[in-house]
Automatic annotation (TrEMBL):
Protein family membership: Belongs to the protein kinase superfamily. KdkA/RfaP family.
Pathway: Bacterial outer membrane biogenesis; LPS core biosynthesis
Pfam families: Kdo
Compartments where located: Cell inner membrane
UniProt protein name: 3-deoxy-D-manno-octulosonic acid kinase
UniProt membrane topology term: Peripheral membrane protein
């Protein structure tokens, strides 16, 4: 990761072609002006897919606050040091995991803009071609036992490395070409492996599947699917 100072803050990049990015390039308006926005993903807020001059597809995401505080403070965070900002911390953990061969999107760049004691931030990662999140996938088709087993093993590999995912849910798991990816490592950490937080991660994922199935009863998920996932997980990491 390399870092440069801007008029308002800093830009960090891992991808060489991102070295020339300016603070303005982290605004979707710039990409829209170039007719380079090729898609979007809507959750609590919109994430943008943009096409670069070198024909790469990147994912641009702004950091927004959620919950009650988000009603009064949409995107401002207390600045306690560059490494502690949401964007730089997420870019750093992605860079480590990507270099170690974990199934995560390739990190591209991050931007932090300061204003007094506070900051706001953005991150860019590479778009995983052909990927669907598990809610989108399971709303259209089912996964077989081998796939659920492989998903459990994927999560186990992250846990064995000590990867804590702060929001492990069905929408933060992608499937592309028979490969599972974990995305959105905001507030994620590399921790000492521990059965307590690892089990809490799994419990959160199960609640997510059940919640999504409550909204869409036809979602291809069952307790048998979950057991197959656990069997895969425990084949590598019994807890």
């Amino acid at each position: 990761m390399q870092i440069k100072t801007t008029q308002q803050g800093h830009i960090a990049w891992c991808e060489p072609s991102a070295a020339t990015l300016t603070a303005q390039d982290f605004s979707v308006d710039v990409w829209q002006a170039k007719a380079a926005v090729v898609g979007q993903s809507k959750g609590r807020y919109t994430t943008w897919f943009v096409k670069t001059d070198s024909a790469q597809t990147w994912v641009l995401r702004h950091y927004w606050r959620g919950g009650l505080i988000g009603k009064f403070n949409r995107d401002s965070y207390l600045y306690t040091g560059l490494k502690q900002t949401r964007a730089m911390a997420e870019l750093a953990i992605l860079e480590t995991l990507y270099q170690e061969g974990f199934a995560v999107p390739r990190p591209i760049a991050a931007h932090v803009a300061r204003s007094g004691l506070c900051y706001n931030a953005d991150i860019i990662i590479e778009h995983v071609a052909g990927a669907k999140d598990l809610v989108a996938y399971l709303s259209q088709q089912s996964m077989d036992e081998q796939q659920w087993h492989a998903l459990g093993q994927t999560i186990a590999k992250f846990h064995l490395r000590g990867v804590y995912h702060a929001d492990l849910n069905a929408k933060n798991v992608l499937l592309a070409h028979e490969q599972f990816y974990l995305i959105d490592f905001d507030r994620g950490e590399l921790r000492q492996p521990n059965a307590s937080w690892q089990q809490a991660n799994l419990d959160r994922l199960l609640r997510s599947f059940n919640k999504e199935q409550g909204k869409l009863p036809s979602l291809a998920f069952s307790q048998q699917c979950w057991q197959q996932l656990l069997d895969g997980y425990r084949s590598l990491h019994p807890i």
